[in-house]
Amino acid sequence: MSQTLRIGGAIGAGLRKALEDDPKVLLMGEDVGKLGGVFRVTDGLQKDFGEDRIFDTPLAESGIVGTAIGLAIRGYRPVCEIQFNGFVYPAFDQIVSQLAKMHYRSQGTVPLPVVVRIPCGGGIGAVEHHSESPEAYFAHTPGLKVVSVSNSQDAYWMIQQAIASDDPVIFFEPLRRYQEKGEVDVSMADAPPLHSARVERPGDDVTVVAWGSMMKVAHDSATAAAEDGRSLEVINLRTLSPLDMAPVFASVRRTGRLVVVHEAPSHVGIAAEISARVTQECFYSLESPVLRVTGYDTPYPAARLEEDYLPDLDRVLDAVDRTFTY
Amino acid sequence: MSQTLRIGGAIGAGLRKALEDDPKVLLMGEDVGKLGGVFRVTDGLQKDFGEDRIFDTPLAESGIVGTAIGLAIRGYRPVCEIQFNGFVYPAFDQIVSQLAKMHYRSQGTVPLPVVVRIPCGGGIGAVEHHSESPEAYFAHTPGLKVVSVSNSQDAYWMIQQAIASDDPVIFFEPLRRYQEKGEVDVSMADAPPLHSARVERPGDDVTVVAWGSMMKVAHDSATAAAEDGRSLEVINLRTLSPLDMAPVFASVRRTGRLVVVHEAPSHVGIAAEISARVTQECFYSLESPVLRVTGYDTPYPAARLEEDYLPDLDRVLDAVDRTFTY
Amino acid sequence: MVNGDQNSTGPKKKAPAKRRKSASTPAADPDMVQLLTPEGRRVSHPDYDVSMTDDEYRALYRDMVIVRRLDTEGTALQRQGQLGIWASLQGQEAAQIGSGRALQQQDMVFPTYREHGVLWTKGIDPIMPFGLFRGVDLGGWDSRAFKFQMYTIVIGAQSLHATGYAMGITKDGKVGGDDGEAVIAYFGDGASSQGDVNESFVYASVYNAPVVFFCQNNQYAISEPVIRQARVPLFKRADGFGFPGVRVDGNDVLATYAVTKTAMDNARHGNGPSFIEAFTYRMGAHTTTDDPTRYRDSGEVEQWQAKDPIERMRTFLRDDEIADADWLESVDAEANDHALSLRERVISMPDPQPAAIFDNVYHEGSQLVDSERAEFSKYHASFEGSDHR
Amino acid sequence: MVNGDQNSTGPKKKAPAKRRKSASTPAADPDMVQLLTPEGRRVSHPDYDVSMTDDEYRALYRDMVIVRRLDTEGTALQRQGQLGIWASLQGQEAAQIGSGRALQQQDMVFPTYREHGVLWTKGIDPIMPFGLFRGVDLGGWDSRAFKFQMYTIVIGAQSLHATGYAMGITKDGKVGGDDGEAVIAYFGDGASSQGDVNESFVYASVYNAPVVFFCQNNQYAISEPVIRQARVPLFKRADGFGFPGVRVDGNDVLATYAVTKTAMDNARHGNGPSFIEAFTYRMGAHTTTDDPTRYRDSGEVEQWQAKDPIERMRTFLRDDEIADADWLESVDAEANDHALSLRERVISMPDPQPAAIFDNVYHEGSQLVDSERAEFSKYHASFEGSDHR
Ligand SMILES: Cc1ncc(C[n+]2csc(CCOP(=O)(O)OP(=O)(O)O)c2C)c(N)n1
Ligand SMILES: Cc1ncc(C[n+]2csc(CCOP(=O)(O)OP(=O)(O)O)c2C)c(N)n1
Ligand SMILES: [Mg+2]
Ligand SMILES: [Mg+2]
User: Fold this and answer.
1) Model confidence pLDDT, tens digit, residues D348-359
2) Which pTM does this prediction carry?
3) Which of residues 112-171 of A touch D (CB under 8 A)?
4) DSSP H helices in chain D
5) Structure confidence at residue D141 (pLDDT)
6) Touching check for B280 and chain C: CB below 8 Å?
7) By the 8 A CB rule, do C205 and D231 touch?
8) Is-contact A19 A53, C-beta < 8 A?
9) Residue B1 has pLDDT above 90, yes or no
10) Cα distance from D205 to chain B (closest Cα, Å)?
11) Is there a contact between D92 and D250 (Cβ–Cβ < 8 Å)?
């Protein structure tokens, strides 16, 4: 059974399903109740599931994650909404020192099924602190799992899988794509595993790896490249920790060329990790070094500059061209 | 004029010099006053410079960095001591959203000469949260500069350079090496620039890049390798943001082989960035992929396991051997 | 004159006491300092009073009318696509003008993103924050020259900066005496829950820093009513940290002025921090992207409408014959002129040059940023003459 | 019996009132609840009292003697290289035994790293935390089975976990009635400055969570005296957050018991959070790595020596003829036995297997960790027979 849903709506539908399936699931965060969140992702859920399960928190992110940990210890499965990417940092200590480590410290006796939802990335002309891409901080933190959704189908299924997971999951949502529509098979029996990458467009010449908001850019690039007679293989990473590298390795062994795209700054970013892994595994297959198309190593700039800051079709195609110059 | 100083003592001596040279320099943190810090790095400084300039703060790290920012706006040059690596996270928001971005936001009108000293790494049999290596989090943050000292000479000079810098500097100190002695030329006219890497041991076969606590491991490995007739070139990175890659590129162009060593987990760690950069710049010179010898992607383990967790001579030599298997 | 230079319009100190037709009866709520009732009646308070010249009364009224008009223009500009977002101060004019006018030249302000009124009282060109909301810059201005820090969007973060700055004032020996310096940190009711704000109370108290925490309790943090932040009045928070807290009618410009002046003077004289809860109401949306009808009913808004800060001041000026109809009209006209000139200047704000992305990341530069800037220029040069962008 | 199972030794509820030779006069400091003076005299308090059987009095004394003796063993074991570090509770026995014994089976404890005494009152084998301090594990134990959470080293972090857990109790409808559940969160005077601790006050208040914040003010945060954290008594902090705060003589096991029992019962009956400041003193070093002579003088320590929690209880037991010399000796002997058995068992704690590094990083595993584990084993296998390690 298939429905057309916007990405934001698909996450909301997935949350609703999870709330129906498991009475232990809770949603908490700033303005998630009556308002339904500033992006309306939780719209209507408090009305239908009550203030006990969907509740507004005080304006304190460390408190959101810290109390979610206590609720998880009590046996709940809290889903925390961080209102915008730049506001997760006050909760950083609770996430990296407590949430990420507690299962390890407890020798496996205390699972922490906490999901932290973070709308991430730029592109909506917002003011500062609203357009950050903090994936690398969390991917570098052992004990956390990190995923990123890019379309309605994944949004609907991955949020449910994240909530069902007994590990803490940092769940990134591409805020500038919330409004994009897509088909969702809500009755699918075998959604792909949460921590799996997916080849979304087969190709022979160059592999392009991306996730979240950059999938659209990757697909558009592939379409444009095709017109120039160049065939790009597009891989949606979907999971950032752990990485699912097998499909990437397989692809690069065929294409010999890889371009990785992300919004975050490049210095010690996730593209660097992919480059290091691919170079080690596919050393003899590489016709060109792995090239990165990313945000620059500056703070996120003023809104009127973000078009120039963010990776776009032209920059991806430029990198694709450069992979043939080696 | 040369003195023999322990690394901890050299940092203390450098702080003392900075306090003498500039009345605007302040030291703040937990137990930095009467106690002289838990590692005694600031021992005696409060007695000599007074409670106005060297002061104990309340037990709140966000407050330490947040008030340091205010003091810097006022015209001071605060040096914050974070007592142990694992306790910098409560200050993460103030560091990445405020300290790192304010100069950019102010269009250059508000420099933030704040130094955040962090004793990092493991190896002293400590309990949890005392042995972390959080460099990557800060190196991935535009607006911050990140350095790491590994010997008394660098300790003495780099702390003074960091304090003299008008940019915020995250200053990593290898806590397990605090007691190691070294010669310090306190009258040197031309200390190398703060953000420069250094070839510390020339070699022809394999390049080994490290910093901080791992320099000793790198040098010991080179000595051991020499006995097996293998010549390692050892490079002390010293600066993690920005990286000074020129000496690394030059070295790898000769050796064709690179091993990067750090304590932090490998996933999206600094070695990944070095691997990506070197592969891109030295693509045709590489005889082998860049290999990483790092902490594993687990939380820092119990003290009795840290010997197995941390990179050591054997693991470095093993990686060196593996660079010849490609 | 485009800006509200405080010498020309601010209350003078030691102003001669004036006739008070109606300053006898005490205010209703003993827990809330009030000097001007919603009906525009002057009332007395045992601990606080102001004696102002007619000029000063009129100046406060004029300030409020102008900043409200400018604020309306901000909202209009956003609606017309000239701004990315606008955070309205409507309803909070008295809290901002009253506190702002109580400051002295040497005092430093640490605002949130809503203190356009306070900015005006500092004599700053009101266009200054529009760069941030238009998206042409990150709000950057020389916060030290203006004695007014950049807007802070991360809730509560500025409270620690303010406290640290105040600690610096003490270290500089600039407290004690009427020319002492003091700091005012603005934040909202929602911010009172943040760890940073509470830590700033600890630091301010322990170091006896000359800082005044000015909390505009406008009853909401976006959609969350203040009961989501605290179950007791916010001004009570201060006591447990070791300094005085007071609630003032934030829609009463006279009371806000009196309370803030006292607190700032205490700070500048070395008597340490204090906390002011300005009890007010956010009449508009949280920002232009918000839809308040989703979480509050019109009845509530109407109740607060009846407590409007400007209305009550106008009534007072009229009843006490401090201002006549002509003058009141002239103020509206002046406010309009300000708004129109502001609009024109905002619309003509130029976009930054693309390469500005790489400016000022560091004060001393960086190899990494420099190389990226070079690549960027090379890359863009490659599009010369093409239809790219 | 190696552990302090609370059924066998804890105070029974509804114990018959006993004769009180000296329970008439009120305590000295009105701001601090006291039921047993440093001299061992029972005093009365208008709001708090306990009536215990002789068994119960003796049980509290026995607990304190045993946990002090076990603590001494911990320090000795560290000195002998058997532990990496030890955090001593010396001087805080009454605060920990009094509060711990006031808990009911269903109550959950969120400790710091110093609550060895509370752990004992929960009937847990005292060896449990030694794995952490020896470095053979990260303290991991089944915190839910024991109703005693893992030690928390990051100052203040557990206060939010405790509050969240308490919010869960409410959601489970487990408040109201004598069998209601409640939570106690321990932290120190230094922790009171952390943002997390203050945020936990906000959350606990807003959600009326059944949690008791138990602050052991032992006068120091490592080298920093409490004046570095606050310039007013810590118990006053609670009021401004909307719940009651009380200071109790933390060296008085009876008063601590009474005050904690009242607070926990209030919480379990749905009356919300409260804050207890147990005014006590850290007699020893912060930890075995600390040298207190660098920051405090012996005179101060001696003054507190005179307020020793065990001494005063012993005097009371003797003077009120609740215990005789033989029994007192037998307790010392029993404590010794506990200590010796503990020592043997600690010394024989095995080191973990190297590959344990990779265990339990995730509940559901991870490709990355699995591959590293495999490499690790392959690598170590390559050293078989060599002299490596
Ligand atoms: C740390 C952080 N979390 C969340 C946000 C998103 N946010 C922006 S304004 C706001 C509400 C602020 O309420 P209040 O402090 O009362 O100030 P007001 O907007 O009412 O003036 C929130 C939650 C933010 N800016 N910073
Ligand atoms: C967030 C954090 N910062 C710093 C430390 C280092 N540290 C360990 S104990 C301690 C002092 C704690 O004092 P207090 O809260 O009074 O507890 P006490 O040790 O006196 O029982 C400090 C600063 C830490 N563990 N966590
Ligand atoms: Mg508000
Ligand atoms: Mg203490």
Assistant:
1) 999 999 999 999
2) 0.97
3) 142-143, 145, 165-167
4) 6-9, 54-79, 93-101, 116-121, 130-134, 157-171, 195-206, 253-268, 298-305, 309-319, 325-347, 367-381
5) 85
6) no
7) yes
8) yes
9) no
10) 22
11) yes
Q: Is D295 a catalytic residue?
A: yes
Q: Do C255 and D251 contact (CB within 8 A), yes or no?
A: no
Whether ipTM > 0.90 holds is yes
Is the CB of D286 within 6 Å of ligand 2? yes
Residue of D71, D159, D222, D227 with the most ligand 2 atoms within 8 Å of its CB, for mutation = D222
As given in the structure block, the two tokens for residue C33 are 């300092």
Partners of D359 on chain A (C-beta within 8 Å) are: 107-108
The shortest C-alpha distance from D171 to chain A (Å) reads 7
* Structure confidence at residue A189 as a pLDDT band (50, 70, 90): confident
Do D134 and D219 contact (CB within 8 A), yes or no?
A: no
Q: How far away, in angstroms, is C29 Cα from ligand 2 center? A: 43
Residue holding tokens 């590094």? Answer: D357
Residue C385 CA from chain centroid, whole number: 47
Cβ partners under 8 Å of residue A284, min gap 6: none
B13 vs B27: CA distance, rounded Å: 13
Q: Can you tell me whether residue B102 is helix, strand or coil?
A: helix
User: From the CB of D95, is ligand 2 less than 6 Å away?
Assistant: no
- Start-to-end CA distance of chain B, whole Å, equals 48
Distance B80 CA to ligand 4 centre (A): 22
Distance CA B217, CA D355 (A): 22
Tens of pLDDT, residue by residue over D87-104, are: 999 999 999 999 999 999
Bridge partners, residue D277, by sequence: D215, D247
Question: Is ligand 1 within 6 A of the CB of residue C228?
Answer: no
Is C242 an interface residue toward D (CB < 8 Å)? Answer: yes
What are φ and ψ of residue B40, in 5° steps?
65, 20
pLDDT tens, C199-246?
A: 999 999 999 999 999 999 999 999 999 999 999 999 999 999 999 999
Helix (H) or strand (E) holding A17: helix A7-21
**Which tokens is C262 given?**
């006292």
> Taking a contact as any Cβ pair under 8 Å apart, which residues of chain B between 172 and 231 contact chain A?
none
Q: How far apart are CA B226 and CA B232, in angstroms?
A: 7
B322 near B214, Cβ under 8 Å?
no
Name the percent of chain A lying above pLDDT 70: 100
Look-up of token digits 């004992």: D120
Nearest to A314 by CA among C313, C386, B150: C386
- CA-nearest of D98, D97, D99, D130 to D113 is D130
> Which residues, including other chains, have CB under 8 Å from residue D113's CB and lie 6 or more apart?
B127, D87, D129, D132, D151, D152, D153
Distance of CA A167 to the CA centre of its chain: 16
Terminal alpha carbon distance of chain A:
48
Per the structure block, which two tokens stand in for B274? Answer: 């070095």
Contacts of B182 (CB under 8 A, 6+ apart): B4, B5, B6, B7, B10, B151, B152, B153
Nearest to A73 by CA among D109, D361, D265, D187: D109
Task: Looking at the complex, report in whole angstroms how far the Cα of residue D373 sits from the nearest Cα belonging to chain A.
Answer: 14
Going by pLDDT thresholds of 50, 70 and 90, the confidence category of residue C28 is: confident
Q: Where are the beta strands (DSSP E) in chain A?
A: 2-6, 25-29, 54-56, 77-81, 115-120, 145-148, 169-174, 181-185, 198-201, 206-210, 232-236, 239-241, 258-265, 291-295
**What are the distances in angstroms from CA A7 to CA A87, A189, A199, A316?**
22, 20, 20, 24
- Residue D295 has its nearest CB partner, among B35, B126, B267, at B35
Query: Which residue carries 């049999």 as its tokens?
Result: B125
